[in-house]
Amino acid sequence: MEQFNTAASRMGLRPIDAPAMDLANTDTACPKKTHGGNRVTWYIECKIAGDAVSDGGDGVIIQSQSHVGSPEFEMLVRRARDDAINVNPAAFIDADVSVNHGTAAQAVAALTEVGRHVISGIFITDNNANAANPGGWEAKVLNGLMAKGW
Length: 150
Prior knowledge:
- The chain is an alpha/beta fold.
- It has helices at 2-10, 39-45, 48-52, 71-87, 104-114, 128-131, 137-147; strands at residues 16-17, 59-62, 92-98, 121-125.
- It is built from seven helices and four strands; from the N terminus they run αβααβαβαβαα.
- Helix 4 (71-87) crosses helix 5.
- The longest helix is centred in the middle third of the chain and has 17 residues, at 71-87.
């Protein structure tokens, strides 16, 4: 990520990284097996979000979507955000929710638990057919957040 951020910044671009949890399954400089074998622990202890905003990175999308409905969602987003802000205080932080992981109500509850003041935005993963539906998952998430004062 650092090489990408440096190169993109040199070209006048504003890099945004979205490091996937699946990176924990690869042979990295910070292997998952040395961090309890848990992807969330690996993401936090290896400071993945901080790496995403280093060397010119403007923001990070925290790949939190698979933890909607779990207490790990809030912990992951808050700790990854803190890590990123420690590296780059101006970085924006997005939490990711997905139609493939949890109901719209669970996504709203998870994001509400994190708090609007903690994140800069939300990255929503949806499919084309559902996104085109005015009453679909994406609309339910956005309307649910607006009803809670977002």
